[in-house]
Amino acid sequence: MTLCLGVDIGGSTARVAVVERETGRIVDSAKQSWTDRGLDAVVRGAASLIDGLVKVHPQVSGTVGVGFAAMLRGPVVVNAPNLGWRELDFGTPLSAAIGRPVRLVNDLSAAAWGEYAAGAAKGATDSLTVFVGTGVGSAIISNRALVAGASQVAGEFGHVKVSLEGGRRCGCGQHGCLEAYMGGAKLAEWMQEEGLAGGAVDLEPLVTSGDATAKRLYDFAVGHLALAIANQVTVLNPGVLVLGGGVLRRCPGMVERIRATVAQRATVASGAAVRVVLATLGDDSGLVGAALLS
Ligand SMILES: [Zn+2]
User: Fold this and answer.
1) Of 197, 213, 216, 248, which alpha carbon lies 20 to 30 A from 117's?
2) Is the domain of 126 the same as that of 187?
3) Domain range for residue 14?
4) 236 assigned to some structural domain
5) Cα of 212 to ligand 1 centre, how many Å?
6) 99 CA to centre of ligand 1 in angstroms
7) What strands, in cross-sheet order, belong to the sheet with 3-9?
8) Is the same domain home to 241 and 160?
9) Across residues 45-52, what is the average pLDDT?
10) Is residue 117 part of a domain?
11) Which residues line ion ligand 1, judged by CB < 5 Å?
12) Residue pLDDT, tens place only, 87-126
């Protein structure tokens, strides 16, 4: 049995896990929240969690995989909206603090890899993973490898456009992105502007109760999400489509809409080949994936 270390850095917490490489099983884990989002504080927090677990499991293998909700370039965090970081080298000081090599990976890539290695997409050679939580993200596994792209930012699915020009402003600075309508944070903002109470996961119950405004927002946001996914299925021809994230997990109607749209609007051959499933590792898919990618 080989043990490896994975880290998941969120907006306000770090989680660290010791994972069995052969099975993806979490053997031990630790978690810490912080209020200081500065580079030094986050490095110190993550390093102390890692050191604590290494003391208990000294046989854990060398490199540490770190999943980060960010655009990355090697050890550098190019843009992490959750933490308000731009162009900060996180990997080098963390590696120095723990005395081990560190590999940063995008959180969605880590989640997709976790589901591929030990979850809902196990056994597949080609998968598309789409998560809707605070934002909208995806990752592509093609022929058993993560697709990185020419500048390592392939799969930024939240920023495909759903309007020909203009549209709502997205956190990335552009307008009309899918995430500006369907990401949990932006959808809640939009609901508030339209006089609807609650957050993104409250929209579906409002539609069920017959609220016309809720239905208009839902049809636009979920309709475009589902159509964009169906188009991705047409282009990529995945064997498995893995759906997850806090919003999709709690809104079964959205999952059904995606399933129906993929069946109706993807090409017949790609639609017939794809199995649509929910992520099975829950909040742990990114943590497990980061460890297994180390
Ligand atoms: Zn955007």
Assistant:
1) 248
2) yes
3) 3-110+284-292
4) yes
5) 27
6) 37
7) 26-33, 13-20, 3-9, 64-68, 102-106
8) yes
9) 96
10) no
11) 159, 170, 172, 174, 177
12) 999 999 999 999 999 999 999 999 999 999 999 999 999 9
